[in-house]
Structures are given as C-alpha cells and as structure tokens.
Amino acid sequence: MSEEFELDTDDLKRRMDGAMANLKTEFASLRTGRASASMLEPVMVDAYGSMTPINQVGTVNVPEPRMVTINVWDKGLVGKVEKAIRESGLGINPQLNGTIIMLPIPELNEERRRELTKVAGQYAEHARVSIRNVRRDGMDQIKKAKADGMSEDDQKFWETEVQELTDKMIKAVDAALETKQAEIMQV
Fold first, then answer.
1. In 3D, which of 26, 23, 20 has the Cα closest to residue 38?
2. Residue 21 φ then ψ, to 5°
3. pLDDT band for position 3 (50/70/90)?
4. Is this structure's pTM higher than 0.85?
5. Which of 64, 80, 89, 102 is the most exposed place for a label (fewest CB within 10 A)?
6. What is the reported pLDDT for 73?
7. Any idea which UniProt keywords this protein has?
8. Which of 175, 170, 167 has the alpha carbon at shortest distance from 128?
9. Residue pair 180/27 in contact by the 8 Å Cβ criterion
10. Beta-carbon-side half-sphere exposure of residue 130 (alpha carbons within 13 Å)
11. Long-range contacts for 51-57 (Cβ within 8 Å, ≥24 apart)?
12. What residues does 141 pair with on adjacent strands?
C-alpha cells in the first residue's frame, strides 16, 4: 500500500480559473452596442518601430455610452493610430479632432448581433474544453495513484472532488455566456 494520495485540487482550480479568466478577456474584446475601452485592447499601433498597444500611445476614455476617445500623446502617431483602428476589423470609423481620435460606436444590426452571440458561444466552448482537459489531467493522476495502490474509496472520493469542481466551473462558463449573449442581444 502506498502512502496517502493527495490530489492538488488547488492546482486544478487554478488552471480552471485561468480558463475562465481567458474567457472573460475574450468576451471583453467582443464589441457589443456599448462603448468600452477594452474593445481596443487587441488593436496594435506601429509606433516607434514596434507594434504597441493603443493604451500605450494615448489615453483611452469612454465619455459617453456610444463613444470612445483616444487622446494620442505624440502628434506624429495620430495617423498611425487612426490607420490601426480602421484596419483592426472592429467596424469603427475613427474621427480626428487634433490629437483626439473619437470613435462613435454604431448600433449593431440584428444579423451582426447573432454573429457575435455565435462567436461568444465558440469562446465559451473553448473554455469548456480547457476545463475538461484539466479534469482529464486530474482523473489521470487519480488513475495512476489507483494503479499504485490507492483504495477504491479514495479513488471515488477524488473523482467526485474533481467532477464537482469541473461541474462548478462549467456552470460558471455557461452563466458568463448567458450574460454576454444577453448583453449582445440587448438593443
């Protein structure tokens, strides 16, 4: 009989939380009908010879629910920031006002809303797969310990622990998806 098996559930939880954090980041980048500074996070500007995030070349503000402004610090970069936004695929048309770039956020049409809910669903599915992969790793550790002499009762206990953690995280993903889809479909 081997020594007492102790599954590192904290590690499994940390890895599952990482999948949730990644999902939230992906959800934040989805454009809903509301303005958000986080929608510009994936946009990179060719500044000073390297690709730089927009928030490092200017101040990003949300003065109104449907407006994002970027106060570019270096006047020479205004054109590059504008170009980066146009080419980003966000579907936003920047308007220049000196060193301030205004981004009016247009209303989403029904078709685009449906597309975005599908994209959100794909992001959620990726998160579920990541969580299930962590579950599989935990179950593999348990099976290995069983082969090394763990009792069947201990095996069942740890399998239940891992499954409960997985179920809890999958429910959190589903809840986050439901919230995001409602936010996207809100007119």
1. 26
2. -65, -40
3. low
4. no
5. 89
6. 92
7. Cytoplasm, Protein biosynthesis
8. 170
9. yes
10. 19
11. 54/81, 54/84, 54/85, 57/81
12. none
Average of per-residue pLDDT values in the chain: 88
Give tens-digit pLDDT for 73-90.
Answer: 989 899 999 999 888 777
From the list 31, 113, 112, the residue with the least C-alpha distance to 66 is: 31
Backbone angles phi, psi at 61, to 5 degrees: -130, 160
- For the stretch 8-55, pLDDT in tens is 889 999 999 999 999 988 887 776 767 788 888 878 899 888 999 998
Q: Which domains does the chain have, with CATH numbers?
A: 9-28+109-185 (1.10.132.20), 34-104 (3.30.1360.40)
CA dihedral 38, 109, 173, 123 (to 10 degrees): -70
Q: Is pLDDT at 1 greater than 60 in this prediction?
A: no
- In sequence order, the β-bridge partners of residue 67 are 64, 104
What distance in Å separates the CA atoms of residue 114 and residue 108, rounded to the nearest whole number?
10
